[in-house]
Amino acid sequence: MLGTHGREIAKTVFTAPARALARVGVTPNQVTIVGTAVTVCAAILLLGTGRWISGPIVLGIVLFADSLDGTLARLTGKSSQFGAFLDSTLDRLGDGAVFGAITYALARQSTSSGLQSWLLIAAVVSMVGAATVPYARARAEAVGAEASGGIAERTDRLVIALVAVFCVGIGLPQWVLAMALTWTALASLITVVTRIQSAYRSIDKR
Description:
Helices cover 81% and strands 0% of the residues. The chain is mainly alpha-helical.
């Protein structure tokens, strides 16, 4: 998974910046909130308005820096249950903003074709999946079950979608984005089903 490898790289890269933030008194929760605000603003102001070159670049940088708050929490010893809750909750806002902005930008296009309908359907399903995948796990854990697994983490889905948006932004045909969003939508659905099955087995054992 991209997220697994990316976290190790990010941990190495952001250790020094995290130490600098710790020295000036910045908290992990503040980093989480600022990162989400930047994500939402970049999604709305760049992706949503069709700036499909600068938008993915900015969001890619923010996505890579997503583990900065976790690194800061470990260095300062300020890891907490509320911090984990806040980070997970605000991630959902960021994901919704990204896929919502892509959907909005596609809906604003004046063309009406089978490809356009395909793009919109895949984008909407991806947006719904971005919220449902983590919800399935969280709801299962709330009832004492385990619901992990799936074929794509959050990072995988975001990176593939943003890379495809960038490719269209530099002139590649829109079917590239259609394929990427289709994969994202299917990966989300498969992951949800996988987690439902995992939760069922976990509950059934009890």
